[in-house]
Amino acid sequence: MTPTLEKEIIKLPSDQDISGRTFGAEEIAAVTEVLQSGVLITTKGKYGKMLEKEFAEKLGVKYAYACNSGSAAVHVAIAAINPNPGDEIVTTSVTDMGALTPIIFQGAIPVFADVCPKTLNVTAETIEKVLSERTKAIIVTHLFGNPCEMKAIMELADKRGIPVIEDTAQSFMAKCDGKYAGTIGAIGAFSFQQGKQMTTGEGGIVVTNDDEIARRMYLFINKAWGYGDPNPDHYFASLNYRMTELQAAVSYEQLKKLDFSVAQRQKMAALLDEQIADIDGIESYKPADGSTMTYWKFCLRVDDTKIEDGSVGLSKALKVYDVASAPRYVVKPAYKCMVFREQNTFGDSHYPFNLARPEAVDYNDDNFQGTIKGLHDVLVLPINEKYEEHHIEFLADSIREAVESVRK
With the C-alpha atoms ordered 14, 19, 22, 25, is the resulting torsion angle positive or negative? Predict the structure, then answer.
């Protein structure tokens, strides 16, 4: 059956260009001010400091330090934990590579935990299965704007004395039991990449309430140079992960719009939920009780016993309506990528994997049944703060007709 839509096909706002972003006169004025000042480095400018202060206050944390990407934010967080070579860091099987290679660059072993097939988030149960005496930290990724169930995870981590890093790249302002995602563990790492709830193209920020961790994160962003110290030095091996003043200026203005961006995404997601709730064969992602979701993307679980070729088939059907979607979310789970399976790291050394326990690098699919099922079922749909009711009506109608066109 070839799908047809009675309504005229409309172009949905895209977060990859101005149609789906909130850039305006404020960002232009701030960037112009920075350029006219000639001060483009945050160590001497004002916007980097203002961004850090306002971000910390917004989340209710003591410290926030800006850096130049979300990957850098994760690297800074891991470096602050300061693993020894061969230490293990538990992470998720479903995440961006930029959140995984920092583990390797700090000489630690990424140990993948399976995920819940209904959320693609790690759980206390999946994490506990892969913990060992060598576990140095746990990284939880709040995927798609939907926070992990942090109460159980923190109880497990606290019992074992293991710090938790929250990768909050996709989940600005999401809440879990009344606390903002990114503020519950030892460190929160955020991304300002193009498609996030606030953006400066590339950029990131890390937050913490721990004085010692904060000091180490600040230093790691700045080549470990102790700015302002009585006798500053480069105290340890680190990089230059500083954000520029141009990025900071855009981020600072974007931060002022974050509440609107999040609220609009939530409002439009609720409307879409309502309009597609009765469609048999699909089910939208929902936050756990006590949590709120801030919708980096809008995700469906597609039942392939009812929909021909499952998420892939539905994605193809949606192309008729010019609706972009991503079946399976990622091409493959992280543990199937060559960098891990072939241990392609530093020259031909295979470091740090040559220090790993065999169990820590057991990438058998049998260990990741939740991952395989979750990725098989998921279809990732676009949503952003420029969506309005007529966009949602069009999207809902498109989904409804596309589902019927590929129904078994």
Answer: positive
